[in-house]
């Protein structure tokens, strides 16, 4: 069971300093055994990335005004109520069906524009700091999302993450067919993909961290030794409280969990990052002590 977060001090900015000042890692100490897995929507970025992708597709006349309105309604519902498994599945499949007949290179350019025009300014500073803290410790950081793989790859590249796994749209001779390869990377499918990735890369899941906002990602969160609930939906919040998992809240108007600070998104993001950073440092010290005894 992952330890809870201590109440942070605003003067404890070690995590944020480490995020701004990368340090050389010691592969013998951290090695490839520990990794961190981050969800995208409402965990790393505010709201649903697919809504912003829809905006990009509309700008390139791949969606109609009615289509963009439908995606906008899905975005509003997501921001208020969180993910709903059936909604995620149908929305992703509908978005990928619009790509039918278009070139992969065209979609890649659209995703690049979507990141630069919309997503980059929607990234939660606290979650980005947490990802950077893992990287500074020499720990690989992966993005796992139901969003199209092309968009996931660009987000990971621009943030300097290790890599990304997203939903793969079928392409024949460089042109999308409108079908999905395998499952939408969501819920149980995301847990299966994470396990396969960990086995391929040699990660020990009991020493790994996972971050998500949705109870739909419990297959991913419960598979690691250090799960974290970020901007959690109602079901995940209660599950995290029962299990004693760290809960990180950035959203204005939502009571900050385990942090006695004003309900400000900026302060909440910084405080939550500092708190989670303290937990990471404690875990690191325990690992160092274990390695010292073993050596």
From TrEMBL:
Keywords: Hydrolase, Magnesium, Metal-binding
Keyword field contains Magnesium: yes
Origin superkingdom: Bacteria
InterPro entries: HAD-like_SerB, HAD-like_sf, HAD_hydro_SerB1, HAD_sf
Protein family according to the UniProt entry: Belongs to the HAD-like hydrolase superfamily. SerB family.
Protein name in the entry: HAD-IB family hydrolase
An example molecular function term from Gene Ontology annotations: hydrolase activity
């Amino acid at each position: 069971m992952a330890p809870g977060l201590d109440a942070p001090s605003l003067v404890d900015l070690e995590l944020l300093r480490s995020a701004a000042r990368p340090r050389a890692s010691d592969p013998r100490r951290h090695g490839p055994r520990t990794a961190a897995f981050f969800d995208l929507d409402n965990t790393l970025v505010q709201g649903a990335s697919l809504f912003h992708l829809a905006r990009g597709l509309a700008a390139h006349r791949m969606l109609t005004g009615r289509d963009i309105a439908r995606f906008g309604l899905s975005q509003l519902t997501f921001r208020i109520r969180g993910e709903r498994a059936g909604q995620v599945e149908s929305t992703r499949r509908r978005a990928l069906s619009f790509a039918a007949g278009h070139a992969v290179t065209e979609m890649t350019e659209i995703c690049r524009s979507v990141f630069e025009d919309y997503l980059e300014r929607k990234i939660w500073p606290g979650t980005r700091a947490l990802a950077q803290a893992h990287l500074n410790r020499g720990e690989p950081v992966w993005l796992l999302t139901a969003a199209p793989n092309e968009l996931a790859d660009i987000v990971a590249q621009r943030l300097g993450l290790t890599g990304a796994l997203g939903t793969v749209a079928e392409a024949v001779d460089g042109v999308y067919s409108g079908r999905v390869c395998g499952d939408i990377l969501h819920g149980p499918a995301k847990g299966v993909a994470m396990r396969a990735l960990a086995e391929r890369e040699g990660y020990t899941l009991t020493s790994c961290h996972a971050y998500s906002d949705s109870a739909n990602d419990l297959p991913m969160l419960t598979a690691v030794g250090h799960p974290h609930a970020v901007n959690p939906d109602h079901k995940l919040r209660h599950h995290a409280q029962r299990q004693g998992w760290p809960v990180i809240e950035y959203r204005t108007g939502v009571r900050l969990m385990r942090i006695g600070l004003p309900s400000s998104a900026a302060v909440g993001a910084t405080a939550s990052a500092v708190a989670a950073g303290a937990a990471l440092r404690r875990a690191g010290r325990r690992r160092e002590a274990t390695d010292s005894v073993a050596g």
